């Protein structure tokens, strides 16, 4: 298995996610090649890198490793040639991603892993047009990628189990927390949780229960702080006291049947 330190790593797409990936990689001393045809891609990625450097310097007094080198490539072939890992970060369109991935694997080294930063497309669909689908997996990060450690790893029907293990080791070397899904599902894990909160928040604003600012404050000054330390299950286990989750479920389990939420309904989105 290659090490990312052997580099370079190719990033296809230099938007918010692609730029975030590039920043995390570069600040870990890894050489990065980016391909993005947008005329402002270079400026955007460099601004992202500057933001990441300021953030890292404010979080630690420890010396940072020497930065990797950043190159902008005029073609996908130039970016992926000799790269040990390729991260696809193009817009959320299945046909576009399939076309990009076909071009990537055509020019990539035979042992290079290919990750997609898609936030919801299934890996089985992404790999369906590939000649070597076994090396494709979803590698879904969270913005800002250069700060947040979670990366969801999801293989498709044809993904090799060894590829998932190799990718997990690579991301751990970047200080990330790779989370391997047991099976593929639309939206993966964290985005499904966020969608539920977002949907309920929209209803509470729509029904004039709270303002947008109130909803943000309700989360960031309360449960948001807890979620930074504990997940939902650990929070409720602790809430059960000495008897733990069993006591909590006996006391509050029936409330799951109460009509508290509108999670299955969608409010009309208007300009107001």
From TrEMBL:
Gene3D superfamilies in the record: N-(1-d-carboxylethyl)-l-norvaline Dehydrogenase, domain 2, NAD(P)-binding Rossmann-like Domain
Gene Ontology biological process terms in this record: fatty acid metabolic process
Species whose genome carries this gene: marine metagenome
Stretches assigned to the 3-hydroxyacyl-CoA dehydrogenase C-terminal domain: 187-257
Protein name per UniProt: L-carnitine dehydrogenase
GO molecular function terms listed in the Swiss-Prot or TrEMBL record: NAD+ binding; oxidoreductase activity, acting on the CH-OH group of donors, NAD or NADP as acceptor
Keywords tagged on the record: Oxidoreductase
Pfam families in UniProt: 3HCDH, 3HCDH_N
InterPro entries: 3-OHacyl-CoA_DH, 3-OHacyl-CoA_DH_NAD-bd, 3HC_DH_C, 6-PGluconate_DH-like_C_sf, 6PGD_dom2, NAD(P)-bd_dom_sf
Residue ranges occupied by any 3-hydroxyacyl-CoA dehydrogenase NAD binding domain in the UniProt entry: 9-182
């Amino acid at each position: 298995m290659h090490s990312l330190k052997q580099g370079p790593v190719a990033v296809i797409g230099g938007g918010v996610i692609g730029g975030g990936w590039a920043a995390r990689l570069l600040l870990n001393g890894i050489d990065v090649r980016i391909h993005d045809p947008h005329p402002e891609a270079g400026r955007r990625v460099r601004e992202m890198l500057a933001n990441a450097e300021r953030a890292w310097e404010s979080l630690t007094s420890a010396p940072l490793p020497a930065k990797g080198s950043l190159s902008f490539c005029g073609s996908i072939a130039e970016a992926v040639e000799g790269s040990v890992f390729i991260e696809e970060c193009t817009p959320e369109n299945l046909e576009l991603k399939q076309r990009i991935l076909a071009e990537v694997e055509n020019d990539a080294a035979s042992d290079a892993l290919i990750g997609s930063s898609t936030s919801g497309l299934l890996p089985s669909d992404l790999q369906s047009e590939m000649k070597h689908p076994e090396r494709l997996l979803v590698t879904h990060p969270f913005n800002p990628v250069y700060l947040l450690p979670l990366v969801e790893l999801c293989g498709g029907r044809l993904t090799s189990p060894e590829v998932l293990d190799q990718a997990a080791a690579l991301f751990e070397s970047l200080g990330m927390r790779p989370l391997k899904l047991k099976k593929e599902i639309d939206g993966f894990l964290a985005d499904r949780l966020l969608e539920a909160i977002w949907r309920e928040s929209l209803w509470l604003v729509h029904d004039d229960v709270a303002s947008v600012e109130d909803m943000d404050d309700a989360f960031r000054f309360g449960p948001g702080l807890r979620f930074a330390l504990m997940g939902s299950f650990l929070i409720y286990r602790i809430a059960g006291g000495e008897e733990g989750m069993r006591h909590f479920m006996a006391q509050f389990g029936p409330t799951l049947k109460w009509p508290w939420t509108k999670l299955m309904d969608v409010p009309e989105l208007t300009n107001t």
